[in-house]
Amino acid sequence: MTMKRALAGALATAIILTLTPLSGAFAEDLRVPVGSQADRNQQSMPRTGMTQASVRASWGQPDSIKGPIGQPPISQWHYGKFVVYFEGDRVIHSVLTPKR
């Protein structure tokens, strides 16, 4: 009985060690060319904490507005190169729009 248990354990270990390197073969490698990466510091975008009025005064009327949705109310202002996310009247995040 002990010999069967030892052989089964050795066989299971061998199978696991054999198949483990294959799991990396199925991983997707995502490459973004350096020229298409944007540096947030070089792009003029609204900062966290700005009001909607100050964003509108600095960048003008957005191309489109989505929301507000949910509680707390979250809205999105879409400009040509970036999207501004508001919670209520304040900016919570600004993100660059991907190049197409």
Written overview of the protein:
It is a single chain. The protein has a four-stranded antiparallel sheet, with no helix packed on it. The protein has one domain (2-96): 2-Layer Sandwich (Beta-lactamase Inhibitory Protein, Chain:B, domain 1), CATH 3.30.1450. The mean pLDDT is 80. It has helices at 2-19, 52-59, and strands spanning 64-69, 74-78, 82-87, 90-96. It has two helices and four strands. The chain is α+β, with helices and mostly antiparallel strands.
Write the layout of secondary structure elements.
Layout: H1 2-19, H2 52-59, E1 64-69, E2 74-78, E3 82-87, E4 90-96
Antiparallel strand pairs: 1-2, 2-3, 3-4
In short:
By secondary structure, the protein is of the alpha+beta class. It has helices at residues 2-19, 52-59; strands at residues 64-69, 74-78, 82-87, 90-96.
